[in-house]
Automatic annotation (TrEMBL):
Protein name per UniProt: Uncharacterized protein
Keywords: Plasmid
Organism: Lichenicola cladoniae
Length: 129
C-alpha cells in the first residue's frame, strides 16, 4: 500500500508512502489483552522497530550481493572470455538480464525495509508522548 498524492512537490518526498495509521494500529493488541494499553503498545512498537532494523540489514546484504553479481556479469565481455565457444553471447545476455532483474528486486526489498523502519520509528515516537 502506498500513499499517492496529486501534489507535485509531494511526489518526490521520501516519506510519502509511509502509512500514517500504523502508530495507532499497535494499540489493538493491548485492548484485547486487557492490560495497560500504552505499555503494551510501546513494547510492540519497540519490537517492531527491532525487527525492522534486522530486516533492513538483511536487505542491504542481499542488495550488496546482487550488485556484486552484476559486476561479475558485466566483466563477462566477449574479449574477456577465454571460453567463447562454451558461453555464447545469448547466454551472457540472459545472465546479465537475470542479474539486473535480481538487483532491481533486491533494491525494492531494501526500499520497502527502509520504509518499514521509518514507520516503526514513527510509531515509537508517537507512543513516546
Amino acid at each position: 500500500m502506498s500513499y499517492q498524492t496529486r501534489h507535485p512537490e509531494a511526489a518526490a518526498h521520501p516519506l510519502r508512502s509511509i502509512p500514517m495509521f500504523r502508530p495507532a494500529s499497535v494499540l489493538g493488541t493491548a485492548f484485547m489483552a486487557k492490560q495497560d494499553p500504552l505499555t503494551l503498545a510501546r513494547q510492540a512498537a519497540a519490537r517492531t522497530l527491532e525487527l525492522a532494523q534486522y530486516a533492513i540489514a538483511e536487505a542491504w546484504e542481499a542488495y550488496g550481493a546482487a550488485k556484486a553479481a552484476v559486476g561479475e556479469v558485466n566483466r563477462m565481455g566477449r574479449k574477456n572470455r577465454h571460453d567463447r565457444a562454451i558461453s555464447s553471447d545469448r547466454y551472457v545476455a540472459r545472465r546479465r538480464s537475470e542479474a539486473f532483474g535480481t538487483m532491481n528486486r533486491r533494491r525494492g526489498h531494501f526500499l520497502r525495509a527502509h520504509k518499514a523502519l521509518f514507520a516503526a520509528e514513527a510509531a515509537l515516537l508517537a507512543l513516546a508522548n
